[in-house]
Structure formats: C-alpha cells, structure tokens
Amino acid sequence: MFQIDPAFVATSHALGELTLCELRLQDDARYPWLVLIPRGVALREIEDLMAMERAQLMDEIVHAGRALRVLGEALGVPVEKLNVGALGNVTPQLHVHVVGRRHDDPAWPGPVWGHSPAEPYTSDELAYAVETARRALGL
Amino acid sequence: MFQIDPAFVATSHALGELTLCELRLQDDARYPWLVLIPRGVALREIEDLMAMERAQLMDEIVHAGRALRVLGEALGVPVEKLNVGALGNVTPQLHVHVVGRRHDDPAWPGPVWGHSPAEPYTSDELAYAVETARRALGL
After folding, report:
1. Measured between alpha carbons, how far is A34 from A23 in angstroms, rounded to an integer?
2. What are B58-91's pLDDT values in tens digits?
3. What residue in B sits closest to A100 (Cα-Cα)?
4. Is B76 left (phi over 0), alpha (psi -120 to 50) or beta?
5. Assembly ipTM
6. CA distance A89 to A66
7. What's the pLDDT at A18?
8. Which of A13, A15, B107, B117 has the fewest CB neighbours in a 10 Å radius?
9. Are A99 and A81 in contact (CB under 8 A)?
10. Residue B96, SS3 per DSSP
11. Domains, chain B, ranges and CATH?
12. Contact B86 A83 (CB under 8 A)
C-alpha cells in the first residue's frame, strides 16, 4: 500500500494530488519549494516508474515550476531560477524537489539541500502559502 | 546556433549525442557522473522544452542512469543511489546532472554540487571511463 514516508510529513505540508504525485509544500519560508511524491509502492528511482508515468512526472514537474512562480510572486520572492532535484540519499522514497531560487537567497548559488536548517512558516504565512500554492496548482 | 557553454568544456569530456542531448562525462573520478545538455538555443529551464522534448529528456535521464550503473561497476564504485539534478544557478544553460552515489562517497548523504573541488581522472582512467561510458550509452 502506498504510504508517504514520515520524514515528509515532518518537514512539509500536504497540498493535494495530481495524476501521479502527492504535492507537498516544504516548510521553509526562505524558498518557494514543492515536493512531488509519485504514488506507487517501493519506488526509489525514476527508472522504477513505467515510461508513461515518467512522462507524467515530467509534466507535473513543469506544472509545479509554474505554480512556484505564482507562489514566489505572492510571497515577495519572485523565482529567478528553478532547481529540480531527485536525490533520496536521506529519505529513499522516490520524490522530486522543485525549488524557486533567487540570487539573494541563503544558499545561492549552491543547492538548498543540506545547506542550513529550515526556517518554518508562521501559521499565518503557512495558511497563505498553502492556499496560494493550491490555487496555482489547480488543487 | 546551439553552442555548449565553455564552463562544461572545462569540467567534463564529450561522449557523444543522443536524440535530444549532448552527453558529457564530468571530470571527477570520485563519482560516476554524466551531464546531459539538450541541444537547443537559449534553453534555461525544463519548461523551455516542448512537451515531446521533455519526455525525450526523461528517457535520456533514465538511459544515462543505467549507463552509470555499468560505469560504476567498471570503476569499482557500484552505484547505490542515482541523483538527478537540474540546477543551473552557476551555468545557466539548461543541463541535467545524473550522478551515481554511494554511502562511502565524499559528499554522502548531501548533494555533490558545491561540496568540494573535483578530483580529475588520470589520463589512463579517463580513457577507460570514456570508453566504458560510450559503450554503455550506445554511443
């Protein structure tokens, strides 16, 4: 049975479901940041998906990137560069990060992963970010 | 006209061409590491590709990952986890890194990007790695 690794629940907030993926908002107010988790059992690598699912994942990555541009504008940190990463060294369940980056963000120009501890949203910010992201994603 | 950013020429070696991408071997003997550069003018983000090109990119990412498993075995560092990343914060031309990771590699479990200076292949190692990668990629 498909289950989301508890590590994702601890660090991000559910936004809803696209055709292939669960969408989550990473709880770090410094970056507009979505996590896509394909619904499937024992998935670890992109190659574990069927060809049609891989094409769907690509579509959902692009969809997430467009939503991040909307979210970044709404949060006052317009996206200058998208970063897309499927790592999974720490949490092996297959997932893809889509992160909106700026030249003035804390990790620039390096990757966000492993850079520094997250700075969680306040509850008001979080409600606004979740609502904005959901609308932009069509969820 | 399509041109590869000189930054790639300085840090990697040409392997050949797939349908969409130029394939290059990153010159860092610590990781089996391929760089895919879609042939197109002024590409910066995955969303700049047409839908069919995006699906092709996904196919070539999976193909590269399989070749990395062969390369890692040949180099004595079998791949335990694939890392896939499209960042472009430093070199904005669209490119995708596919990296073979191990629990005993220098950057584990963090990302390789920005971790530490590359350790280039010796000329003998490089010739062997290029030949092995080309064969595994069907180039």
Report:
1. 7
2. 999 999 999 999 999 999 999 999 999 999 999 9
3. B87
4. left
5. 0.97
6. 26
7. 98
8. B117
9. no
10. strand
11. 6-137 (3.30.428.10)
12. yes
